[in-house]
Amino acid sequence: MQFDYEIPVEEYAAGQVLYYKACAKGRLVKRALSWVLLGLFFVFIAASRWVVDWAPILLLLTGGLFIYWGIVSLFPRRHYRRHYPESGLAGTSYHAELDEHGFSVKGDGCSWRVLWTDALLKGEDKRVLMLSGKGTIFVFGKKYLTDDQQKEIRRLAVMS
To answer: Going by DSSP bridges, is the β-strand pair 102-107/128-133 parallel, antiparallel, or unpaired?
Structure first.
């Protein structure tokens, strides 16, 4: 199977979020809750010993920052959309070939060949199919694929 595709900003963000969730393996909420609780602890200490001095103010600001990090870590899509221009993917076309052994992707001045056994993380949402292998995240937009091609990719990716 062969197809050509691009990775626009929303598909890039969707693929990165799928990778983020696959790597975290259910620890996202625990990590976020830990940051929020630590932040609340710092805020509580600063508020209970409040005097106009630098130590309580810094403790209060640090606690607020920890709470912010905890909440933002639950919604990473905005972060990935913001960093899309730095990725170098805007306006770049890719050609993918998939077979029983693996897949290859060729872009402007780069190419990858990944065996299905080396594709460690896999994910899917309503916009993209995400595969990770050889230290790279591969995001295939569903709008570039027919339903039969999507089924074939799912079948091949599960074979490993």
So the answer is: unpaired
